[in-house]
User: What shape does this take?
Amino acid sequence: MAPSAQAHKRAHSLLLFEKLLNLRDAASPLNILLDTLEQGAQPLTNEFMRRAKIERAKIVYVSFATIKKPAVSDVFIKAWGKSLKALAAEIAAHVAPPRGASKDTLATPQKSLIIIDTLNPLASQTPHLLPSFFTSILPPGTSLVAVYHTDVPALPVALPGTGPDSLRAATAAAAAAAEYLPDALTLLAHLATAVFRVSSLGHAVAARRARERSLAEPQWGLREGREGVLVGLRAGVGEDGLVVEMEMRRKSGRAVAERFVLVQRTDGRGLGVVVMDDHPAFRKAVGGGEGEGEEEGMVATFNLSLTEKQRKDREGVVLPYFDAQVEVGGGEGGRILYEMGREDDFDEEEDEI
Assistant: This one.
């Protein structure tokens, strides 16, 4: 791919990512944020809410694990202990258009943003009801941003039985049916119109340096396999920033994938977005001309380049049997021209063969 095509692709992906953050044209009604203990998704959810406030959208924050109401949110709903049906009705009451609204209001509905701080309780209890739940709380003009912790183990799915007398049979049937149900992460990735994977920029840089030296990439968190207490990066973006891997599904079915780096602005107004390939920590890996990136990124004890004198000397070297490469005529091109030396023993039989 030509450099101009790569630059055009990166610019298009950056505009699309900004469009999703700004909730423009309802480009993605269902956004799933996948995070881990090493890097939480709270900085990205805060950026969604900050930009939604600028767009004058109504922010409904649904809390399963958050105790204090965020300052920028308009409605704070405590979801723990509520049934899925009651929770859906409460959320829909805040985002649905008012009764008796005019046709103009229905044609241009008010923008609303629903934030769910974690989907793990719903995904563990009733994963088969998530499609209907999302449909009931997403009227036109509403976007949903939900966080799913990928390193939290999912509980076994238990389907309801038919009565106390058939409890043992219902338990066996539920266990058999659960084997054929997709896991929560697969189901959410299939339903979402945009998936964002959040990771630490410092970890991405460390992994890149290990790959450049042909070393095993370092592991963190649960994958590290060390005993003791796991401590994540908390809610900050770190000293450098965080990496967001976007996968947006268009209506045609084509997916747009790109990786971005979000850094804190110097003026303190939210996060700045840059394509990962344009970040200084990764710019050398995709360097400009041939040999330029290798000279900057690879450290060697010898020089592979040629001086101007060496290049001219190489061009002036005459290759052996060079005359045989020229077609003489009569279909004899490619024949081997050999001049016998004084020490050669001429054999007439081999010459005839």
Remarks:
- Strands lie at 30-35, 58-63, 75-78, 112-116, 142-149, 194-200, 242-249, 255-264, 271-275.
- The CA atoms of residues 49 and 72 lie 7 Å apart.
